[in-house]
Amino acid sequence: MTDTVSAPTGAALIAALLEAKVEFVTAVPDIWTSAGFLWPLSKEPALRYPHAYTYSELAAFTDDLPRLMQLDGPVCATLKLVPGQTPLNIDYRWMHGPQTRAGLKRAIQSLILQMPNP
């Protein structure tokens, strides 16, 4: 005996999101969900579809970052990473340590201060 499981329809997913009182939905479209779910989702006035971007090149992400920071949120930016060719000796204690986090916070604050006022 074979059990069959049917996938939920786009309309059923949207109804479930509305019932759960979800306000924001972030998704990256693919061939399987675009027509039946994401396109109808973008037309549903009770659900807001934020800005969602995917980057495969660091330079493109870096160039686009000031624009992304000016958008009304929420904004989702995904940077695709691939493993390097050689093993790295990474000091995770340093990488995730309080001094490194504080340095990153200072760098981000500096970038925000350099941004033009809207």
Q: Unreliable segments (pLDDT under 50, ≥5 consecutive)?
A: none
Radius of gyration: 20 Å
- Estimate the mean pLDDT confidence: 79
SSE arrangement, N to C: HHEHEHH
Topology:
Layout: H1 10-19, H2 34-42, E1 51-55, H3 58-70, E2 75-79, H4 92-95, H5 98-114
Parallel strand pairs: 1-2
Give an overview in words.
The protein has helices at 10-19, 34-42, 58-70, 92-95, 98-114, and strands spanning 51-55, 75-79. By secondary structure, it is mostly helical. The chain has a domain at 11-49. A two-stranded parallel sheet has the order 1-2. Strand 1, helix 3 and strand 2 form a beta-alpha-beta unit. The protein is extended and about 50 Å long.
In short:
The protein is mainly α and 118 residues long. The chain is 45% helix and 8% strand. A two-stranded parallel sheet has the order 1-2.
Kindly list the characteristics that best describe this protein.
mainly alpha, extended, 8% strand, 45% helix, 118 residues, two-stranded parallel sheet
